Amino acid sequence: MASQLEQLREMTTVVADTGEIDAIERYKPVDATTNPSLLLKAASKDAYKDLIDGALEWARSQSNDHDQQIVDACDRLAVDAGRKILELVPGRVSTEVDSRLSFDTEATMAKARRLVGMYDEAGIGTDRLLIKIASTWEGIRAAEQLERDGINCNMTLLFAFEQAVAAADAGAFLISPFVGRIYDWYVAHTDHDDYGPEDDPGVQSVRKIYSWYKAHGFETVIMGASFRNPGQIRALAGCDRLTISPDLLDQLEQTDAELPRKLEDDGSRKDRTGAMDENAFRWGMNEDAMATEKLAEGIRRFAEDQVKLEKLLGARL
Questions:
Q1: In contact, 229 and 19? CB cutoff 8 Å
Q2: Does residue 276 contact residue 165 with C-beta atoms inside 8 Å?
């Protein structure tokens, strides 16, 4: 029997949740996704040495201002890492906007357009890219305009149903519900020290979004993310996409038991009136302690790793 990874690929698009070139070469995913945390980790790898040197050299050529050089070097490293990944995957790479811009719609759009412009200069079109944006109200509004401009977006740090609805209403290309971080919160804040796949709050969240999207005919892609164990992945077999870390990809590859489909669009549709407005969005988030806390925490952590990456590059400038 084929491995569970191969079986999963028959029903779900597998994405590599890593910026490590060797892992992408090994598992051959369709797409790959990066973020500041993954880039920071990858920056210590030999495969990225030339990319870092090139980003620093380019930044020095753009400005004499040290602070601006750091910004330029970070943007160039993200784009060059994306370019290298695109040599290995047939689909798209996700490149993240600085999470410190998560509550600034105009600044988010400006950074997204800058990254897309840098890719364009390297001969890479928007059909190979997704711009990752935190699923704040401001981030979703930025994605709405970027999508109208032909720039596809990956809405990240998504924990609440309200975020998913608002992203679909905005026409976002893709959402990334964070299964593992939802699981983490419930383990920390309830009397459960573990959840089975069928009872897992993160799994249930993605299933609810999947059913709602399909029932209302939304084309926004659902990509489950942030997994803690293979059981969570198996419980979402059939989801549009799943982005999976190298260690979990390896576990699936080493397992050859049958993998049944868990999610499937049955083709039935229902009408819906109205869209998610700002008041409903903010009230829904306010009522969901898990989503509020994990969104804020995720933005802080990505910002912290962005600062670490800036310090690493700044020291070499």
A1: no
A2: yes
List the catalytic residue out of 111, 132, 214, 262.
132
Domain at 4-316: CATH architecture:
Alpha-Beta Barrel (3.20)
Clarify whether 49 is annotated catalytic: no
Tens-digit pLDDT string for the chain (317 aa):
899 999 999 999 999 888 778 888 888 899 988 788 878 887 778 878 899 999 999 999 999 999 999 999 999 999 999 999 999 999 999 999 999 999 999 999 999 999 999 999 999 999 999 999 999 999 999 999 999 999 999 999 999 999 999 999 999 999 999 999 999 999 999 999 999 999 999 999 999 999 999 999 999 999 999 999 999 999 999 999 999 999 999 999 999 999 999 999 999 999 888 889 999 999 999 999 999 999 999 999 999 999 999 999 999 99
Give the start-to-end residue ranges of the domains of the chain.
4-316
Q: How many Cβ atoms sit within 10 Å of the Cβ of residue 3?
A: 16
Tokens standing for residue 204: 């249930």
Q: How far apart are CA 30 and CA 93, in angstroms?
A: 9
Sorted by sequence, the CB contacts under 8 Å of residue 296 that are 6+ apart come out as none
Contact 124, 83 (CB under 8 A): yes
pTM here?
0.95
Those residues with Cβ within 8 angstroms of residue 75's Cβ, 6 or more apart along the chain or in another chain: 114, 115, 118
SS (H, E, C) 131-196: EEEECCHHHHHHHHHHHHCCCCEEEEEECCHHHHHHHHHCCCCEEEEEHHHHHHHHHHHCCCCCCC
Helix, strand, coil in percent for the chain, rounding step 5: 55, 10, 30
Cite the beta strand spans of the chain per DSSP E. Answer: 13-17, 31-33, 93-96, 129-134, 153-158, 174-177, 221-224, 241-244
Structure tokens that stand for 8 in this block: 């999963």
